[in-house]
Q: What sequence folds into this?
């Protein structure tokens, strides 16, 4: 009876000891596997070079040349030859007004001038001369008096004015450009419209933006800028600063203007853009920005040494969108880990992928 209880108890103890031994072996194998596991990272050699300090601002693109065109003659709109978005050349006819009044005025002025010429000839004959060429013998004052008495001077001025106004019934483009803000329609009085249209020369664009007053000493005419439209981040244009307004507004901002070529018509008048200005600072140790990690309230960089990730505290200086300068903790030539470094610890085994 006694042996009947001993045998099952012995078997139970042996089974428990076997399970505990297996558990210890599994934990040991896991630790060995964890020690052999290597983290794949990307690294880059720290270099001493000029650091590109970036100044980012927002602004608007404006046409470098833009004109609001009006009807030069007040009358009924006869014809509009363009529409919004049309590209035209210098001298192209944009619109015409009715020419009846201007034409009649020109004809009347011509008749008046012809009559004045006849009166002038009679006056010359009365003076004893045969032709106008003979009046060379007269003094300038006497000749001027003859022209005024017969109405020749005033008739000539009236004709020239009527001739000019007749040419103004057609509004022509003063330069190459694109039509905008056109509202005029035929058969309406020109007085109905505030203006005929706006002509925009978008071959060159001016970008207007503001910077903090602390940056005014770092900007000057001729400095290069990069301009990226918010509507299309694929394109970046290069321009140059043309103006730095030497006045600070009530918000502590300084107005700056830059000009860029726009032959591909990427920028549109009034478009919102991002402006990037770079200036270089000599003799800085430069590493990727993603290599710097916050740990325990300090900045840390992992340096690759003999297959291990070595933890180093660093002091950083300038930074831009992709890189940072290091004042202490890194030397030129050190291989710093910048990718897949968030989960690293000191002395972790790593393999450089790139």
A:
């Amino acid at each position: 009876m006694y042996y009947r209880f001993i045998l099952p108890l012995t078997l139970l103890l042996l089974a428990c000891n076997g399970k505990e031994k297996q558990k210890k072996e599994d934990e040991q194998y896991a630790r060995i596997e964890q020690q052999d596991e290597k983290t794949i990272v990307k690294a880059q050699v720290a270099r001493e070079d000029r650091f590109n300090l970036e100044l980012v601002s927002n602004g608007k693109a404006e046409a470098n040349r833009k004109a609001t065109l009006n009807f030069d003659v007040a009358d009924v709109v006869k014809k509009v030859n363009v529409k919004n978005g049309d590209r035209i050349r210098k001298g192209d006819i944009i619109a015409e007004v009715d020419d009846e009044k201007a034409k009649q005025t020109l004809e009347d002025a011509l008749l008046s001038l012809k009559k004045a010429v006849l009166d002038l000839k009679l006056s010359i004959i009365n003076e004893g001369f045969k032709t106008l060429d003979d009046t060379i013998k007269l003094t300038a004052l006497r000749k001027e008096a003859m022209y005024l008495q017969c109405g020749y001077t005033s008739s000539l001025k009236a004709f020239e004015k009527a001739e000019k106004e007749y040419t103004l019934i057609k509004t022509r483009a003063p330069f190459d450009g694109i039509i905008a803000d056109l509202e005029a329609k035929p058969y309406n009085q020109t007085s109905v419209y505030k203006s005929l249209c706006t002509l925009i020369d978008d071959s060159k664009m001016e970008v207007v933006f503001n910077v903090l007053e602390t940056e005014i000493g770092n900007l000057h005419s001729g400095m290069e800028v990069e301009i990226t439209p918010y509507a299309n981040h694929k394109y970046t244009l290069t321009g140059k600063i043309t103006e730095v307004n030497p006045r600070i507004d009530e918000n502590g901002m300084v107005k700056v203007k830059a000009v860029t070529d726009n032959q591909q018509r990427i920028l549109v008048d009034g478009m919102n853009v991002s402006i990037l200005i770079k200036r270089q600072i000599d003799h800085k140790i430069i590493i990727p920005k993603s290599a710097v990690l916050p740990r325990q309230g300090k900045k840390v960089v992992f340096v690759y040494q003999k297959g291990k990730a070595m933890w180093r505290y660093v002091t950083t200086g300038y930074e831009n969108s992709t890189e940072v300068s290091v004042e202490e903790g890194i030397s030129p030539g050190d291989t710093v880990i910048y990718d897949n470094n968030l989960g690293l610890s000191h002395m972790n085994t790593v393999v450089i992928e790139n």
